[in-house]
Design goal:
mainly alpha; 308 residues; 13 helices; single chain
Amino acid sequence: MNRTTLGVALAACTALISGFAIFLNSYAVKIVTDAALFTTLKNGVAGLALVGVLMAVAARRPRYVAPLDRRAWGSLTLIGVVGGSLPFLLFFGGLAMASAPSAAFIHKTLFVWVALLALPFLGERLGWVQIGALGVLLASQLLITPPNGVTWGVGETMIAAATLLWAVEVVLAKRLLARADPLVVGVGRLGIGLIVLVGYLVATGRLALIAELTAVQWLWVVATGGILAGYVGTWLAALQRAPATVVASVLVLGAPVTAILDVLAKGTVPAGLSLVGHTLIVLGAVVLAGAAIWRTRPAALGAAGVQP
């Protein structure tokens, strides 16, 4: 398995985790009703989990985790703000004001913005096959979440800003991962982001709400935080090995996973157009992943001494 193939496989694992996370979070936010508090605590649990993994790895293989230089620390700090905190506040704040169809559709266009940013800033190339696959993915989102009754206001602007910031984070993380370990980046992203999120809770007078959480609420926080740790770890490991456009597109596979879980939990099968949309997601993601793997095939065969 070459580097890109491993990256695609890790991205598929991330999509599976994402599908479970979205499904569970839909229940968790109804139990821990303050979205900012829930996000802060969940990120804190995920950060602690990744710190534990990092310490275990460093104890067994001290040279595996290299220290960061000053420039890398600057990039990591920026990732913590741009990806690990500010967009969460913008997204949940916008969610309270935006219409549901608008919010869902805007957020699901993340892979498009990643692809557009990856061209000039990461030097990634898109052929007609990749462009066609991206078009299929976009069409799938229109079928699953038709933008009927879409309006535009402050809430939609905040969600769009959050989506763009997450796309910028992908580019920053991809560049940093060329010289930093995914576990280190993950811990930094969550840790620095947590500082900003806690500061927001303090500024809004909501930090005291932590003392009012019940055992059931804490159980949901710990469960979803653990899943988030797995998501961040596999996502960054995938991003280190595969093109950012491919990783972001493969992550869209989380939607069919959530849909399957909804069917199992509620017995509600997606309607005709929605079902077609989920099918197109699988098709578009497979084509993009396959094209990326095929592009690296000659290099992999050459390294093995085999003529393609």
